[in-house]
Task: structure prediction
Amino acid sequence: MLEYCSDYGIDRSRIAVIGDSGGAYIAAGVSMRLAKYDEGHLVSFVGQLIPMTSNDFLVKPDDYYEEWELKGLNREMLKGKYDQLAGRRIE
Result:
């Protein structure tokens, strides 16, 4: 990609890697891979928006959510939001 920056008028010093949800997880993986091979200087910013770092609400017992329920949330609402963010069809 960096090889063709000048063809598209892209400033090589302003390359960013950004992802949302599962994409944030990928952005983290890309940045870790770049760091591993001492190529972190190739990007100037890595952004992780709502990173998918856990699926606790799918595997935790119901009583884990009692504190959240006091705030008006419940497990089904959280699962629905997860499905929506994951691009799953919600019925």
User: Anything to note?
Assistant: Residues 22-36 form the longest helix (15 residues).
